[in-house]
Amino acid sequence: MHRETFHYDYVYVIHNFLTSVECARYIEMAEGIGFTEAPVSTSQGQVMRKDIRNNLRLMSDDPETANILWQRIQPWVIDPWRHRHAIGLNERLRFYKYEPGQSFAPHCDGRYRRSDFEKSDFTFLVYLNDDFKGGGTRFFQPQTFRVVPKAGSALLFHHPQLHEGEEVKSGVKYVLRSDVMYRSTNADHDG
User: Fold this and answer.
1) pLDDT digits (tens, 9 = 90+) for 15-69
2) Burial (Cβ within 10 Å: 0-12, 13-18, ≥19) of residue 59
3) What is the pTM for the complete model shown?
4) Would you say 181 and 92 are in contact if contact means Cβ atoms under 8 Å apart?
5) CB under 8 Å to 154, separation ≥6 — which residues?
6) What is the dihedral of CA 184, 185, 190, 191, to 10 degrees?
7) CB atoms < 10 A from the CB of 16, how many?
8) Kind of pairing between the strands at 40-42 and 2-7
9) Which of 20, 51, 95, 172 could covalently link to 30 via disulfide, CB atoms 3.0 to 4.6 Å apart?
10) Fe2OG dioxygenase domain location, by residue (predicted)?
11) Contact 93/176 with Cβ under 8 angstroms?
């Protein structure tokens, strides 16, 4: 494994995080369960907005797999806050499937709050394949740059980073997603 930094410590990739065999197993497992249309989170709750997001999603609460992934990624995770420390991955794993013509318009990822003391701050995303065209992850601030999906690579980024899942032109793109959870030493301190 090795790290490639795109924007200081706020957007970076860990290459060769998963093997091709592991990636294939995750894809097979997700396809075996099945995908559904993915909603968008708004102030009014979850809504279907195909003009913003039209990919497919599978959600799976799996603390065991989250812990296995955490043990591998933990040495690469940063602790940028003085009063908050990384403690693991969100056990709610999301598998995304993008077919030709599907994308996710520019957005910022939301924070998951497990409690007053435990909140997510970084997105953890693993590209499970790369045998498709298009489908890059493009970031917009402070400058525009693109992360090209490579099977087995993990992309980590701070939730407030504006980004998009670019349209897949051909083939099918698969992604595994979770969040890095942080524990605060003070419930009033939000980081």
Assistant:
1) 999 999 999 999 999 999 999 888 777 777 777 777 777 888 999 999 999 999 9
2) middle
3) 0.92
4) no
5) 13, 14, 17, 18, 73, 76, 124, 125, 126
6) -80
7) 13
8) unpaired
9) 95
10) 89-182
11) yes
